[in-house]
């Protein structure tokens, strides 16, 4: 979204009371932006292959039912990696054939459910594959089944998010001694294995390295098919991981750039013989989300101005715990929602949580903030407010989608803010007395008075 459009959305949110006395923090999603990204993704791959492509949105990037329903309406599917994510995708109305189930820790029950539904499954390791051997032998399934391959091409700039390192916990390693030959045999022996899957990481990966992994998966598919003497592997799932630019408005790199790079690097994968699955998350939603928070107080310590706001670790967990890897742009508005002007002053933008590191930004040059002002944390649509962190029992924030029409900007509720009663219920209120000592026959027998009588 451009800054003009964002400014209009912030003003409308303030005018329409989304940031009222009871709601000092709220999150906004740009509906037109989400649709545009979905369309850009589809167009980018349609331009480089005539084969079918399922774009399965990675649910963990924005586990919100209305967002999945919107993306589904825009022609996308969903990638789920837990029973919760699978349930969210189904609640959004996605049919099983539009859903892919990944996860390195699928239980037998989860696998059985996925195969009964017909959801695509990517097996992570030999033990999971043994369970699939038993399940596919016991009952027929419509589920396409694949192998997740770790191409071991190396990591990116963020270690915790790099999944294609030599010792990554994900997938079947490809370059360990003997691994490749064993994988080919594993696939050839199982006619129901029709897919290969690779996902090299998430943010911080160089596009060339991601392409290395896709190429490795393609070459393995070719080798398996040659060994099987038929087109056994018919689909390659290339994962997600397109990095997002958090430094400006620009959507860079674009889906088009990545699709063109892949088509140039791995032409055989795009000549129509292979169907594709993609699993983009962050790059579809990050730039369309915004957290708005009121400044409650301003103060100064050690010569540093500090604005204490209501947005911190609960909505921007990664930024707070790893600020170097996850810097966020912050925009400043006054109490009426108008952009705050004035000379930039280095100041901390702090959150409400009770630990010193709860900062959205440190020494950030911004017009000096005042109590009642509104700060906006930009590009927070992925892996931020949607994946709430419950520290200090801070409530999950409300999420509103916004659209601009002839009559101005209107909002639709995506998720309500968590009410105090819900926090209390989740804190075990229904079991209040569970840990208190309770009188019982045994308790009376062990009464000191009894032993004295004995
Ligand atoms: C997290 C994840 C994705 C999405 O990654 P993004 O960086 O958000 O695009 C896709 N596939 C798998 C298997 C993942 O774990």
From TrEMBL:
Residues forming the Orn/DAP/Arg decarboxylase 2 N-terminal domain are: 49-286
**Which terms are listed as keywords in the entry?**
Pyridoxal phosphate
First and last residue of the signal peptide: none
Q: Compositionally biased, Basic and acidic residues: which spans?
A: 444-454
Q: Which cofactor does it need?
A: pyridoxal 5'-phosphate
InterPro entries per the UniProt record, alphabetical = Ala_racemase/Decarboxylase_C, De-COase2_C, De-COase2_CS, De-COase2_N, Orn/DAP/Arg_de-COase, PLP-binding_barrel
Q: Give the superkingdom in one word.
A: Bacteria
User: By its UniProt entry, which SUPFAM superfamilies does this protein fall under?
Assistant: Alanine racemase C-terminal domain-like, PLP-binding barrel
Domain annotation Orn/DAP/Arg decarboxylase 2 C-terminal: ranges = 287-381
Q: Where is this region: Disordered?
A: 426-454
Describe the family membership recorded for this protein in Swiss-Prot or TrEMBL: Belongs to the Orn/Lys/Arg decarboxylase class-II family.
Entry protein name: Diaminopimelate decarboxylase
Source species of the chain: Streptomyces sanyensis
């Amino acid at each position: 979204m451009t800054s003009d459009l964002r400014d209009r959305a912030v003003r409308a949110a303030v005018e329409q009371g989304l940031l009222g006395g009871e709601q000092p923090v709220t999150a906004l999603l740009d509906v037109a932006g989400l649709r545009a990204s979905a369309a850009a993704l589809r167009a980018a791959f349609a331009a480089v292959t005539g084969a079918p492509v399922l774009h399965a949105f990675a649910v963990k990037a924005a586990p919100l039912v209305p967002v999945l329903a919107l993306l589904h309406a825009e022609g996308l599917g969903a990638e789920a990696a837990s029973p919760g994510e699978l349930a969210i995708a189904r609640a959004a109305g996605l049919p099983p054939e539009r859903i892919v189930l990944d996860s390195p820790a699928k239980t037998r029950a989860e696998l059985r459910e996925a195969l009964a539904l017909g959801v695509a499954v990517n097996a992570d390791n030999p033990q999971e594959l043994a369970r699939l051997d038993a399940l596919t032998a016991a009952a027929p399934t419509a589920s396409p089944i694949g192998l997740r391959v770790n191409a071991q091409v190396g990591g990116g700039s963020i270690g915790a998010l790099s999944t294609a390192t030599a010792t990554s916990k994900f997938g079947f390693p490809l370059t360990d001694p003997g691994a490749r030959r064993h994988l080919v045999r594993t696939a050839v022996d199982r006619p129901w294995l029709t897919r290969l899957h690779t996902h090299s990481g998430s943010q911080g990966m160089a596009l060339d390295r991601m392409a290395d992994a896709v190429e490795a998966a393609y070459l393995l598919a070719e080798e398996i098919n040659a060994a099987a003497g038929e087109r056994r592997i018919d689909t390659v799932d290339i994962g997600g991981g397109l990095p997002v630019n958090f430094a400006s408005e620009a959507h860079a790199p674009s889906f088009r750039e990545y699709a063109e790079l892949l088509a140039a690097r791995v032409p055989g994968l795009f000549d129509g013989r292979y169907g594709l699955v993609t699993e983009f998350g962050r790059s579809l939603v990050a730039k369309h989300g915004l957290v708005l928070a009121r400044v409650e107080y301003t103060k100064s310590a050690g010569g540093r101005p500090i604005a204490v706001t209501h947005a911190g670790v609960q909505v921007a967990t990664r930024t707070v715990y790893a600020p170097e890897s996850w810097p966020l742009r912050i925009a400043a508005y006054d109490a009426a929602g108008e952009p705050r002007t004035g000379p930039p002053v280095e100041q901390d933008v702090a959150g409400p949580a009770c630990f010193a590191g709860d900062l959205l930004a440190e020494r950030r040059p911004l017009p000096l903030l005042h109590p009642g002002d509104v700060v906006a944390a930009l590009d927070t649509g992925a892996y931020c407010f949607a994946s709430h962190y419950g520290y200090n029992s801070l409530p999950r924030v409300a999420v509103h989608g916004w659209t601009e029409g002839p009559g101005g900007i209107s909002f639709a509720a995506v998720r309500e803010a968590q009410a105090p009663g819900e926090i209390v219920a989740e804190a075990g209120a229904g079991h209040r007395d569970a840990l208190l000592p309770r009188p019982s026959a045994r308790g009376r027998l062990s009464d000191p008075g009894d032993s004295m009588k004995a």
